[in-house]
Specification:
491 residues, alpha/beta, three-stranded mixed sheet, 11 strands, binds glutamine
Length: 491
C-alpha cells in the first residue's frame, strides 16, 4: 500500500469509500507519522486513544453506508478550539490544564461529518504572533528548510502547528484561526492552502477569543479542493454566535475546476512595496499571467488606505484583546497565583500566566482605550477601518471579482531571527493580510512558487463578502499552474 499519509483529503475520501483502507488504518498511519515528527513540536497534545475510537466508530458507519462528507478523515485541531474533555490552552500558561466541558461549534461540525481528531496543535499564545514563537509550549519547526541548510525555520503564525502538521503530512487538514493573517501567512510559509472565510461565515463559539471583531476560523489543507471540503463542514450559522450569518453554506467543492473566464481580477498598486524581494514581485506577475491564461481579465486597482491598515490593526486588535483577556484572573479557571488580597491574586496570576507578547498587547490595548486617549487612538483607528473597508467596496462596485496580491512580504525565516529587538519587524509579516480582516472579507493563500533558497511562497486572493467560491475557483487555477510542493523529509 502507498503511504497513506501522502494522500490528499479528496483521495483519502475515495479510498475510504472504495474500502481500499479503513479509517483506522489511515488514522494509525498519521499517528505514527506524528510520533516520528515530535521534533517539529506541531502537536501540543496527542489524542491517539480518542482518535482510534473515533476511527473505529466511523468505520462502522461507513460499512453501514452512513458516513458523512468527512467520514474517517484524520484532522488536527488548533489549541484555540475548545474540545470537550481534551485540554485546551490557547498555548498560554494562564489556562493551565483547562479541560473544557463543551465543544466548539466548528469542531463539533467536523465530528458531525465524520472527521477524526488526532490531537491539539501548537499556536502562538492567544494567537498573537506571526512565527509561533510566543507559545508557552515553545516554537514549531517548519518542515521546509533552505536548500543546503540545517537551520530550523518558523512555520509562520499564529496557526504554526496547523500549517506545519499539514505540510509534514501529520494530518490531512487542520483547523486554524485568522485575526490578522494567522491562516494565510503560515499557509504561505509551508506551501499549504489556507482560507480565512468572510467574517460571520464560521461560528466563533468555543474558540478562545483574541479580537472578536476580526477573528475567523478556517481550514489549512494540502489542496484547494481539500480546503473547500473542510470549509463546507466548518461554516454555517450558529445561534450561539450572534455574529455568525444565517445564509446557506454552498457546496464549495463545486467551485473547484469552474471556469474563471471573464472574471475581473484587481491588482492593487499599493501592495507593491519598496524593498520587496524581486522573487515576490515575480511570483505576483506569474500568478497574474496564469489567471489571464485561464481567461480572466487583469485590472489595476487602488486601495489607497492600505498603508494605514497595520497601524490601525495594532490599535483595534490589542484593544479588543485587552478586554477579552480580562477574564483570565485566576479565579474561575486555569492558573492561580496566590496573593495577600484579591487584587494581588489577579496581578500575580496575570504576571505569571501571560507571556511577554500578550502582556504587551494588554498594555497597548488598555492604553488606547483609556480616557484621554480613546478618541485619539481607538476611535481614529475605527474610522480608518471604515475607510479600508470602503476601498474594497469601491473596487468591487467597479465589477472586480477578486484581488490578487502576494500573501507575505518574504519566505519563512529562522527561529529567533525576527522581532527580537523590534516587535514591528514581526508585525510587518501581516502587511498584505490584515486589510482583509479589517474589511471582514474572505482571503485565500495558495502555494505558488519557491524563492531562490527553495522556500515556498504563496499568493493571496481576496474576495467579495461570502464569495469564497470565486476564491476556490481562482485558487485552483493557480494550484494547477504552479503545481504542488512537498518538503524533503529531515525529521
Ligand atoms: N500576526 C498578527 C498578530 O500577531 C495576526 C495574528 C492572527 O491572525 N491571529 O496579531
Amino acid at each position: 500500500m502507498t503511504d497513506l499519509t501522502s494522500l490528499t483529503l479528496a483521495e483519502a475520501r475515495k479510498g475510504l469509500a472504495d474500502k481500499t483502507f479503513t479509517s483506522l488504518e489511515l488514522t494509525d498511519a498519521h499517528l505514527s507519522a506524528i510520533e516520528k515528527a515530535r521534533v517539529l513540536n506541531a502537536f501540543v497534545m496527542e489524542t491517539p486513544d480518542q482518535a482510534r475510537a473515533m476511527a473505529k466508530a466511523v468505520d462502522e458507519k461507513i460499512a453501514r453506508g452512513e458516513g458523512g462528507p468527512l467520514a474517517g478523515i484524520p484532522l488536527g485541531i488548533k489549541d484555540l478550539f475548545a474540545t470537550k474533555g481534551v485540554r485546551t490552552t490557547a498555548c498560554s500558561k494562564i489556562l493551565g490544564n483547562f479541560v473544557p466541558t463543551y465543544e466548539s461549534t466548528v469542531t463539533s461540525q467536523l465530528w458531525r461529518d465524520g472527521a477524526v481528531m488526532l490531537g491539539k496543535l501548537n499556536n502562538d499564545e492567544f494567537a498573537m504572533g506571526s512565527a509561533n514563537e510566543t507559545s508557552c509550549f515553545g516554537p514549531v519547526g517548519n518542515p521546509w528548510r533552505r536548500e543546503g541548510s540545517n537551520t530550523t525555520l518558523v512555520p509562520g503564525g499564529s496557526s504554526g502547528g496547523s500549517a506545519s502538521a499539514v505540510a509534514a503530512l501529520l494530518c490531512m487538514g487542520a483547523t486554524a484561526t485568522d485575526t490578522g493573517g494567522s491562516i494565510r501567512q503560515p499557509a504561505a510559509f509551508t506551501a499549504t492552502v489556507g482560507i480565512k472565510p468572510t467574517y460571520g461565515r464560521c461560528s466563533r463559539w468555543g474558540i478562545v477569543a483574541f479580537a472578536s471583531s476580526l477573528d475567523q476560523a478556517g481550514p489549512i489543507a494540502r489542496t484547494t479542493r481539500d480546503a473547500a471540503m473542510l470549509l463546507r463542514s466548518m461554516a454555517g450559522h450558529d445561534p450561539k454566535d450572534t455574529t455568525s450569518v444565517d445564509i446557506p453554506v454552498p457546496d464549495y467543492e463545486a467551485a473547484i475546476g469552474k471556469s474563471v473566464k471573464g472574471m475581473k481580477i484587481g491588482i492593487p498598486r499599493e501592495y507593491r512595496l519598496d524593498g520587496m524581494p524581486a522573487e515576490i514581485e515575480k511570483l505576483w506577475s506569474e500568478g497574474a499571467a496564469w489567471l489571464k491564461a485561464a481567461g480572466a481579465e487583469l485590472v489595476e486597482v487602488s486601495l489607497p488606505h492600505t498603508k494605514y491598515a497595520l497601524p490601525a490593526y495594532y490599535i483595534v486588535a490589542p484593544a479588543e484583546a485587552s478586554s477579552n483577556l480580562a477574564r483570565y484572573d485566576g479565579v474561575r479557571y486555569g492558573l492561580r497565583e496566590q496573593g495577600k488580597s484579591i487584587n494581588e491574586l489577579y496581578e500575580n496570576t496575570r504576571a505569571e500566566g501571560f507571556g511577554a507578547e500578550v502582556r504587551r498587547r494588554v498594555m497597548i490595548g488598555t492604553y488606547v482605550l483609556s480616557a484621554g486617549y480613546y478618541d485619539a487612538y481607538y476611535l481614529r483607528a475605527q474610522k480608518v477601518r471604515t475607510l479600508i473597508k470602503k476601498d474594497f467596496e469601491d473596487c468591487f462596485a467597479k465589477g472586480i471579482d477578486a484581488i490578487l496580491t502576494p500573501a507575505t512580504p518574504s519566505a519563512a525565516f529562522g527561529i529567533g531571527e525576527k522581532g527580537g529587538a523590534d516587535p514591528v519587524e514581526m508585525y510587518l509579516n501581516d502587511i498584505f493580510t490584515v486589510t482583509v480582516n479589517m474589511a471582514g472579507l474572505p482571503g485565500i493563500a495558495v502555494p505558488s512558487g519557491k524563492d531562490a533558497q527553495g522556500l515556498p511562497l504563496g499568493l493571496q486572493l481576496i474576495g467579495r463578502p461570502f464569495d469564497e467560491e470565486t476564491l476556490f475557483s481562482l485558487g485552483e487555477v493557480i494550484e494547477q499552474a504552479a503545481g504542488r510542493f512537498t518538503p524533503a523529509r529531515w525529521w
